[in-house]
Amino acid sequence: EDLKMFKNGNPHAPFADKIWLSSPTMHGDEIEFINQAYRTNWTSTVGLNIDTVEQLLCEKTGYGYAVALSSGTALLHSCLY
After folding, report:
1. CA 77 – CA 81 distance, rounded (Å)
2. Which of helix, strand or coil describes residue 19?
3. Mean pLDDT in the chain?
4. C-alpha angle 19/21/23, rounded to 5°?
5. What tens digit of pLDDT does each residue of 2-17 get?
6. pLDDT at residue 55, as a whole number
7. Please, what's the largest Cα pairwise distance for the chain?
8. In angstroms, rounded to a whole number, what is the distance separating the alpha carbons of residues 66 and 68?
9. pTM here?
10. Rg of the Cα atoms in the chain
11. Integer Cα distance of 47 and 38 in angstroms
């Protein structure tokens, strides 16, 4: 189906294929971490995996605190407070 923006002489054509900004990679350790989160009922922004990421980030950077967020948008929202 043609999109409205590509009608009326618009010289740009729609992409034939999707352009993925990032494709999910869920195998090996990643899928085990996801399964662990489901098994332990920690499928939110808290839990052992998140705590560990924050702790490792503190150790790597030397800072006393770190906050893991779910997206760049969540980061921008946290900057408003």
Report:
1. 8
2. coil
3. 80
4. 95
5. 555 555 666 666 667 7
6. 96
7. 58
8. 7
9. 0.56
10. 20
11. 11
